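Input sequence (155 aa), recorded before submission:
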Amino acid sequence: MKKFIVGIMILSTLSISLFAEKVQITSESFYARDADKQVHFINDVLVKQGQSWIHSDKVIVYFNDNNETIQYDAIGEATYEVFKGKNHYQGHSDKVTYYPETSIYMFTGKAVIYDIANNREVRGNIVVINSITGDSDVKSAGKEPVKFTFDIGGN
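Predicted structure, token format:
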């Protein structure tokens, strides 16, 4: 019963804090760590908000002292599609970290992001995107370079 109440509290908090749209998280199971202010969703996790979604093996939702969502991590073969204003991204990576207060996404581990609206693609080990402004920062690890592919127009 406690987990059910925590789940309702999470969904209520997420719906208020993430762009005022309701967030729905489905998974095979979840458990809460009240002392750590975390909820862990396990196996076949789908996070949906409006048209945006993230699918992964595990999602951890973090809360502050006021039970407001401050971060969530999607871990394990994460795929996603994000819509924010004129921006539209699709891709995959090993992990996605999302900070709802700033609308910043951090994609780590073999990240590939397609900027659908601008017909661009970026690849790197760490890709940080501000989903409101479209600003990005891309870093590589080891000898693999970052890659940026875009259309210059014309022909």
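Checked by second reader. The mean pLDDT is 84.
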